[in-house]
Amino acid sequence: MFLSVFDMFKVGVGPSSSHTMGPMVAAARFLETLRRSPFHASGLKASLHGSLAFTGVGHATDRATILGLAGFEPATYDAEKAEATLAAIQATHQITPPGLPDLRFDPKKDLTFDYGPSLPGHANGMIIKATDAQGDVILEETYYSIGGGFVLTAAEQAEASGSKSKARADVPYPFETAAEMMQMAAASGLSIAQMKLANELKFRSKAEIDKGIARLWEVMTNCISRGMLGEGILPGGLKVRRRAKGIHDALIAERGLNMTAPHVINDWMSLYAMAVNEENAAGGQVVTAPTNGAAGVLPAVLRYYLDHVPGASTAKIPDFLLTAAAIGGLCKHNASISGAECGCQAEVGSAAAMAAAALAAVLGGSVEQVENAAEIALEHHLGMTCDPVSGLVQVPCIERNGLGAIKAVSAASLALRGDGQHLVSLDVCIETMRQTGKDMHEKYKETSLGGLAVNVPNC
Fold it and tell me: What is the reported pLDDT for 162?
């Protein structure tokens, strides 16, 4: 299956790609189905299951579902309009989606959290129903939010989980493993970014790709900049204080003192990542990279490259993002990028692998060195759990992105010191991530039922 750079990186809204963006997208898909159906609906109902239930309030899943049913979508989300819409729905117990009549919907009765076993297709499951005037169900669909804002119906998920003997995507370089990627690169003489671009050109013009990539970086770097200015307490009840501005102010103040230790560059990388994830936690606009919970790693490494590496060039931004998207596609296709499915190794681990590969590429690394960089970064996130305190994408998520960025840069640097030859392959690491995620106890997979989530006071 072909995954575009614009599938891997999507402009959206925080705090979670799987728990906020995904349910909003699922609701939008249901509205489209309802518009095409012959039925005359009078009401809507939705139920959240598995991880969507356990951490749904902390991830704003309830709000996202309601807003999705009201016609909101992540890429065009308007925060002020959303608040007004939510208030109106709470007051009237009615939703008026675009192209549909007024529909009954009482948030307290018609949106339920099911804390029983997960639905069979994925840990992030939800069911949306349309009812008639008597309250009988006339249309029903099950959706799975599989990470990174990707959403599948139950039928689509069953097909995706079935036989892997599907025809390859109709693109020039249909690599499905890192080994195939390197073989195709060797045969073609092209870099990973060049092969990825050739694949993208099957679906979009070069001008469209350039414009889209420029837009992605614009949103990413603007998110960093906003985050470095933000102050106050993050929403949700944990009373987590925003720290990026204070760190930024201190780093700027130290610049002219000629006393800065070399390791302070790590603080800059952490700053950029934390700025993004504080914006995400506040419900701001971010880019999935590959998820919202891991959205800070890749922008932080790219900002580090542009602002701190001698000889860096903005002309390398497309190569950076195309390389990262190729690696992210391998992680998603062969394992997962969902914390609810494989723990945080699948989110921050995948993000670090993507960023490490991308940095190695723009610093002139060979295809073998780029693959090695991704492998090093992912290997040292294997086994990482997803245990957000109080179900919020704040602790340990914000700092974890900072450390993920540091690991990514270290992995790229280490790989570039070698010749690309190494014992453990990226494919082996990705398969190990899949197996580890399968074996990981559910309480460590974005349910807030284990780890830090039960050992840190929630108030």
Answer: 67
Q: Report the predicted TM-score, pTM, of the whole model to 2 decimal places.
A: 0.94
DSSP labels, 17-53: IIIIIHHHHHHHHHHHHHHHSS----EEEEEEEEHHH
Q: 432: domain range?
A: 178-455
Q: How does pLDDT run across 164-192, given as a tens digit for each residue?
A: 445 578 999 999 999 999 999 999 999 99
Distance CA 220, CA 321 (A): 11
Q: Whole-angstrom distance between the N-terminal and C-terminal Cα of the chain?
A: 44
pLDDT tens-digit series, residues 221-233: 999 999 999 999 9
Please report the pLDDT score of residue 165 as a whole number.
Answer: 43
CA 29 to the chain's CA centroid:
19
Q: CATH number of the domain that 247 lies in? A: 1.10.4100
Structure tokens at 250: 């201190």
In 3D space, the residue among 416, 288, 402 whose CA is nearest the CA of residue 356 turns out to be: 416
- Omega within 30 of 0 (cis) for the link into 396: yes
> Tokens for 403?
């450390």
